[in-house]
Amino acid sequence: MSLPPPAPPVFSSGSPVPEGHRSGFASFVGRPNAGKSTLTNAIVGTKVAITSDKPQTTRSVVRGIVHRPDAQLVLVDTPGVHRPRTLLGERLNDLVLTTWNEVDVVAVCFPANEKIGPGDRFIVNELTKVKRTPKIAVATKTDLATPERIAEHLLDISALGHDTGTDWMEIVPVSAQDGDQVDLLADLLVKRLPEGPPLYPEGELTDSPEETLVAELVREAALDGVRDELPHSIAVVVEEMGLREDRPEDKPLLDVHATLYVERDSQKGIVIGRKGARLKTVGAAARRQIEAMLGTPVYLDLRVKIAKDWQRDPRQLRKLGF
Ligand SMILES: Nc1nc2c(ncn2[C@@H]2O[C@H](COP(=O)(O)OP(=O)(O)OP(=O)(O)O)[C@@H](O)[C@H]2O)c(=O)[nH]1
Q1: Domain count, the chain
Q2: Ligand 1 centroid – CA 38 distance (Å)
């Protein structure tokens, strides 16, 4: 007796998955501020990863999912890789190496408005530890550079590949801001994915829990306008989130209780501001972003607590979700 052939794969809508459909994972890497989160958002077409002009703002692995008739591309947004100085730094770098090993293709971002530097070299050298994963080089932020500068940049990227023994599958210039060549990059990433049915239901944009996204939006608001070491000292945990009971169906209200952790008393003062003014502004900005993302009015209760030196303390790191 022979087993019946397996049922052909179908989309969650019920329509059959076409032959040659591809699915898999891609990861953008690059030094802090290289434009990885912005590129993720441009490819997915909606705000899933936070962006900011402060380096190293991405801490959690947020995935954006691109649904196309011929493919499903899952983008894994990793933290910026850097020389570890704290325990948090080490954990982040481990997370990055693990991610690189597991994805189908890695795209390394080099901002076209800046010269290739030691930070880029460090990353590309680290990348040589993952031999099997195909690598694509992306020259980002091309809207900020002249054609001559872009040409020079592409040559530098190629030379860096040569020096480190890295075989770039492609070198692509893009501007996430203008949407220039973003579709081409998506095509090139898809080409590297194995054949297979979709991994996530249609319409899903990210699999990170809403709490994580909300916490990231609060952190993004809190980072706006702070300087020096403080950005790295801020962590946000959403303690509780849920629709308020006893509300009419057409007037829902989402209650969000979040804690903003800093490392020292002096930082607490800065974050809260004079008579709480700064915290109020941060709360209002975060609330608007959360409302825009979730499409529901939000009541945001934001508290500030000190988790002493949490970046160096394993127990605190675990508590904060690292
Ligand atoms: N003009 C221009 N600016 C860009 C572009 N892409 C990103 N940026 C800006 O560059 C800064 C950093 O972008 P992000 O996407 O947060 O960079 P990232 O690599 O994810 O940064 P980390 O999370 O710190 O690793 C932000 O201020 C972006 O607005 C682009 O294509 N053009």
Answers
A1: 2
A2: 5
